[in-house]
Design brief:
It holds the Pfam family OMP_b-brl_2. This is Outer membrane protein beta-barrel domain-containing protein. This protein has one domain. It is mostly beta strands. A hairpin with a 2-residue loop joins strand 3 and strand 4. 13% of the residues lie in helices and 60% in strands. The chain contains one helix and seven strands.
Length: 134
Amino acid sequence: MIGIKRKILLLWIAISGVCVPSGAQVGDLRNNLAVGFNGGVNFNSISFIPRIKQNTMTDFNGGLTIRYISEKYMALICGIQTEVNYTKRGWNELIEDESGETYSRNMNYIEIPILTHWGFGKEKGVQVFLNLGS
């Protein structure tokens, strides 16, 4: 019984220490919303076991990008970015016989990544960006 009371007391002390209000340094607040388009090229192939001959399938992707920058700490900007992208992927298989026929598989996807957006560098100079997410 004493062991349970001791555990409850230690848990209460630990939770109390975590719940103490704390203050942090806040950077320059920004409300910067950017909306734009993105696009690119896909070079697709796929690995099979056993291996088959195939050509690289080339197609496009593109979509809408929305980015919100909320704070700036010295030379670091912090924000969030989301996209809605359409992409075409697949492969072209070369059938190894005298017919010379091919088989192609086309797959269409809608991707919605959500990313943290960090930028490093001077505001009116060169900046490097890092996007992390899924």
